[in-house]
Predict the structure.
Amino acid sequence: MATASWHTSVRLLSWARQMASSQYPADELRIEVTDANTTPAEMRSAGSHDVSGRGLFLIDVLAHGWGVSDDSTTTWATFPIPAGSP
């Protein structure tokens, strides 16, 4: 069972690397995640026993900004890079 789970994780990470990209000017990091789902990402309120529904809440708290592309297939977030960071 552990081997099957590990292979699934590797395949998922490989897929995520293909679908996610990052770019940044000197003072900002922008991360984009794209998939085929055309339902726009939206923040929702997760209950204390829910196992999902907190991702965009965390992005909203930690990121400088976030949004969804016009075709709703890409969700992006920007994060400030402190001056003097390598």
